[in-house]
Every structure is written in C-alpha cells, then in structure tokens.
Amino acid sequence: MSENRELLVSLDRIEEEIAVLVTKEGHMWLLPADYLPEHSREGDVFNVIIEKNSEETDKLADSIQSLQQRLLDRTSERNKSDR
Hints:
Helices cover 34% and strands 36% of the residues. It is of the alpha+beta class. The radius of gyration is 21 Å and the shape is elongated. It starts with a strand and ends with a helix.
C-alpha cells in the first residue's frame, strides 16, 4: 500500500456550518464548512488525500508517554504517603 491515498467525496449538504461529505461507498464525513474551498456547492466533488504525518505521530506518542509517566509517578507518591 502506498504512503498516500486519495479518494473522492461529494458535498451532499451543509447544515449549521457543518459540511456533509459522502464517499462513493456511501460513508458520510462531517467537516466544518470552513474547510471547503470558497464557493463550494452541493454536488461538488473533492479529492481527499490521506497522508501520514510521522512528525505529529511522534509528538503525540511522546506526549502520551510523558503523561503516562506523570501518572505513574503520582500514583507511586500517593502509595508511599498512604503507608
């Protein structure tokens, strides 16, 4: 499988500033309407490119690891004070 995937979605409607996009398989995506190109209308078809962002993935993993460590440290400190 390639690193980048592209698919087509069509704009079904916009409700309360939320764009309802539909894939050819019938899956619906909700997206803030502000993300759409200017002058988008119902029935317009858009290319969607899904690309892995390794840098952001690594940042998220580091953030989660840091949070887990803080929680472990806090639990350990509470267990020591309960004795």
